[in-house]
Amino acid sequence: MSKQKIIVVGNGMVGHKFIENMIEHPDYDQYEVVTFSEEPRLAYDRVQLSYYFAGKTVDELMLTSPDYYDENGVRFIVSDKVVNIDHANKKVVTASGREESYDKLILATGSYPFVPPIPGKDQEHCLVYRTIEDLEGMTASAKVSKVGVVVGGGLLGLEAANALKNLGLETHVVEFAPRLMAVQLDEGGGQLLRSKIEALGVSVHTEKNTTEIVAGETCRYRMNFADGSHIETDVILFSAGIRPQDELARQFDIEIGPRGGIVIDNNCLTSAKDVYAIGECALWDGKIYGLVAPGYNMAKVAVSHITGGDLAFEGADMSTKLKLLGVDVASIGDAQARTPGCLSYTYSDGHAGVYKRLVVSADNKKVIGAVLVGDVEAYGNLLQMMLGDIEIPGSPEALILPSIDGAAPALGVDALPDSAQICSCHDVTKGDIFEAVKGGCTDLSGIKSCTKAVTGCGGCAAMTTQVMNAALTEMGVEVDDSLCEHFSYTRQEIFDIIRVKGIKSFDELLESHGQGHGCEICKPAIGSMLATHWNEYVLDDKHIGLQDTNDIFLANMQRDGTYSVVPRIAGGEITPEQLIVLGEVGRDFGLYTKITGGQRIDFFGAQLHELPPIWERLVEAGFETGHAYGKSLRTVKSCVGSTWCRYGMLDSVSMAVNLEMRYKGLRSPHKLKMAVSGCTRECAEAQGKDVGVIATDKGWNLYLCGNGGMKPRHADLFAQDLDDETLIKYIDRFFMFYCRTADKLQRTSVWMDNLEGGIEYLHEVIVEDKLGICEELEADMARVIDTYECEWKKTLNSPERLKRFAHFINSDLTDDNLAYVEMRGQAKGRIATDEERQKLAKGVEIETVELV
Amino acid sequence: MSEWKDICKFSDLAANTGVCALHNQEQVAIFRVGKEQKVYAISNYDPIGKANVLSRGIVGDIKGKLVVASPLYKQHFCLETGECLEEPENSVKAYAIRVEGDVVQLQA
Predict the structure, then answer these.
(1) Which residues in chain A are contacts of B12 at CB distance < 8 A?
(2) Which are the contacts of A434, defined by CB distance < 8 A and separation ≥ 6?
(3) Which of A785, A786, A779 is nearest to A733 (CA)?
(4) Helices and strands, number each (H, E), in chain A
(5) For residue A554, which of A484, A657, A624 has the smallest C-alpha distance?
(6) Which H helix or E strand runs over B97?
(7) For A195-226, how does the pLDDT look when each residue is reduced to its tens digit (9 = 90+)?
(8) pLDDT in tens, A713-727
(9) How, if at all, do strands A556-557 and A428-429 pair?
(10) Residues in chain A closer than 8 A to B8 (CB atoms)
(11) CA atoms of A635 and A657, how far apart (whole Å)
């Protein structure tokens, strides 16, 4: 049987989703897929477009790659627009003249920005906001401008305003309607949103009808309004809505709605045989859906129809929750209370800047709509109650009133049907999450990678966690997050106990809150917490038994029981004299020597009794311990920065040295790595670190929670253009908050992935001080910094402690089970195998590896 | 009658840590657990990691058994019997040990 050929016109988010669904379909081998894109690149995430100005690169916005399509046999043609459909002969023709026949044709042409027909709208700095090329145009315009106006105060308009603000322009929003987000909000919500946005320095002008754009006096242009007023601006950004890109269908005899849009039925079929339309170009039941979730749903339905399934498109809910210019806004169902007979409840808190309106059915029993501004926590509950047609338990006002005694009146997720959609971006239902939990995903990061829930807009994180916990409870899995069999508390709880009760030793804690003797899980974990909080000498009598061997001997055990030694080389900066000393130490003690990934030098093969004399030499030359053995700050990697580099914006080496000297010795749940790059070329690879700092022309950008390792994670951009002082303040708070709340041996990346609310929540805690703990976090960090002492220096001064540095307590002999093989010019090139050790014992020489 | 050989002073051992002793050409790991005047001795050789390291592990208890966790790959060895809890076929030798006054002794 020959393959059916499917052509997808348009490779935007929805077109790509269609292809992805096809690839994942079990019968995919019976189909051949070809896709055309007018844009020069494959599908990218338009929803996240505004992050482009917050530092996200085009690569990070990409949803797919040529490799992915190649691997799955999808042919793709970019920068070539389909201009002709011949549906009698079932073929399409592109602008470059390419012809391609099809069995099924999918129109996923999307939409284009609507620009009102205002005289003067076609000038050089009059722009739209839709594609990456548009953003590049905006960036170029902003460089030669001071003032920017966005025409349109809807959702996209406000995102565009945010972009202008990020580009450093004085920003205005001009709206035709009497309020912002007129479609989603009611008057009260619109007003509060306006005052919040104005407080951020964005001017809002409502009820303005632009009549013409002429040359300006103080700025490049002047916009004249119908009421006689005007505004001067250098850039104009039109964001006054979208129009379906239906031109192709229009020209070739496919039915179009009276106000545009390709008419489709419940199977997403158009009026032409074997031609489908999906996404923003499609008109279903007289409606165009300008959100991505309904488009994804249409993609799914079209795949189902082509492959013989029975899914149908039955409309979509347009409820939405988002952050605009930092303000939380949500709209559900009939937000403007247009349903006849419906009732409204309103709650408004002028002090905290919160507005909530609940719209219920005439019988006061069902949620039919809501507006939330400033506090959108109720969104998940209210949406599920509306979608599930669930009767309101108790009085409706309780759903939006703040909880006075801390007990939030939440709808139990148990009340939801399995079909309830929890994540609308990826259409993940309660049932899907239950299944994932049953399949073994028992934490939020597992659920994320298995179901994709929470990985779109992230708005469903709280709800997803609730459903996951309900599933765990139902399965009888007691969520046991106690530290180990000796302590039935989580790490975070133990940290609080240590802090609040002032506990200073493991024995004290074991007596008051634990049982038994402890083990290799709880001892180092608690040793680390005590060190984070009190920062006492880790080899003190009361702490020594808690430490892993690495911490006891202040070196890293290798697989034959010998140790490696890493002195601190802050920021990777070292004098020639120090470098010579390191060379001499490596040579004199016959140690295998290697440069580490963190810009320092590692010596291998030191026996216990050799550690003190090695360190005597190092300390004498001014070196300190590098803490390579600890769950603590390792290195702050740096590039050379502005002191030498032609491209450097700031002095990255000085910053790296300062940061390393500040945080050295900080004991943490897991190791911590940092890096500082002097410009966006990012030679220090800061975005792969727990804390990454990158210089810009306006200050430092701070990235958090990246790591390399087994599961690499790109760090998230947390704050931009910081001065030195603010940068350090944020890092202080971040580290301490992580130390307090992470699980044992949890890297910052996993911690972040499990943090409900993610980076935004972290922003609230660290920048906005939502929990009111920032001062305390800084004070805790200050104590750690003030009490720092080099552990090796202290140990060398204590004869009592030095006694431990011997292999035998009753003999000066050393371990006889050590042997090495020369490699590439180093005597201890590698540890000998068991067989080789036996040969060596018999005096047989081992063949060495040639220098290559 | 069996004879006992002096190894070290009890006060040389920090609470809840181990040391290694050379005894009859063998490496013996000696541990002091809890506050009592009591010590344990097993082989210092970790048969899984194939290195003389057990004296440098963390001591504790797992389901009531006193154990040391190997510093290499964290398997648990019972301090009283030398049994490896995860891989019994890799159990190690236990030694008779006692404290006389302030002196730790192994059976010769």
Answers:
(1) 803, 809
(2) A418, A467, A471, A474
(3) A779
(4) 27, 38
(5) A624
(6) strand B97-100
(7) 989 988 899 999 999 999 999 999 999 999 99
(8) 899 999 999 999 999
(9) unpaired
(10) 809-810
(11) 10
- Residue A339 pLDDT > 70: yes
**Is the CB of residue A520 less than 8 Å away from at least one CB of chain B?**
yes
Within a 10 A sphere around the Cβ of A501, how many other Cβ atoms?
Answer: 12
- As a whole number of angstroms, the distance between CA A108 and CA A110 comes to 6
What string of DSSP letters covers A251-281? HTT--B-TTS-EEE-TT-B-SSTTEEE-GGG
Q: How confident is the model at residue B40, as a pLDDT?
A: 96
What residue type is assigned to position A801 of the chain?
Answer: R
Tokens for A323, please give them: 């952050």
Q: Is the dihedral of CA A117, A154, A265, A44 positive or negative?
A: positive
DSSP letter for B94, please. Answer: B
Per-residue pLDDT for B33 more than 60?
A: yes
Q: DSSP per residue over A380-421, as a string?
A: HHHHHHHHTTPBPSS-GGGGTSPPSSS------GGGS-TT-E
SS3 string, A70-85, reads HHCCCEEECCCCEEEE
Angstroms from B1 CA to nearest CA on chain A = 24
Q: Which residue of A has its CA nearest to B50?
A: A560
Q: 3-state secondary structure string, A508-570?
A: HHHHHHCCCCCCCCHHHHHHHHHHHHHCCCCCCHHHHCCCCHHHHCCCEECCCCCEEECECCH
Share of chain A above pLDDT 90, in %: 59
| A65 Rama class: left (phi>0) / alpha (psi -120 to 50) / beta | beta
Interface contacts (A, B; CB < 8 Å): 98
Contact B53 A549 (CB under 8 A): yes
> For chain A, which domains are there?
4-111+244-306 (3.50.50.60), 126-240 (3.50.50.60), 491-547 (no CATH), 556-737 (3.30.413.10)
Look at A373-382, A655-664, A689-698, B22-31 and tell me which has the smallest mean pLDDT.
A373-382
CATH topology of domain B4-100: Rieske Iron-sulfur Protein (2.102.10)
For residue A568, the one-letter residue type is R
Sheet strands side by side (includes A99-101): A82-86, A91-94, A99-101
State how far the Cα of A332 lies from the Cα of A370, in Å rounded to an integer: 5
Domain borders along chain B are: 4-100
A800 to chain B: which residues are within 8 Å by CB? none
Q: How far apart are CA A201 and CA A178, in angstroms?
A: 20
Q: What ipTM score was computed for the predicted complex, to two decimals? A: 0.94
The residues that bridge with A233 in the sheet, in sequence order, are A221
| Separation CA A670–CA A747 (nearest Å) | 6
Whether the Cβ atoms of residue A605 and residue A592 lie closer than 8 Å to each other: yes
**Quick check: helix, strand or coil at residue A184?**
coil
Residue A234 has, within 13 A of its CA and on its CB side, a CA count of 17
CA distances, B82 to each of A837, B31, B57, B66 (Å): 25, 12, 14, 10
Amino acid at A771: L
Distance from CA of B28 to the nearest CA of A (A): 9
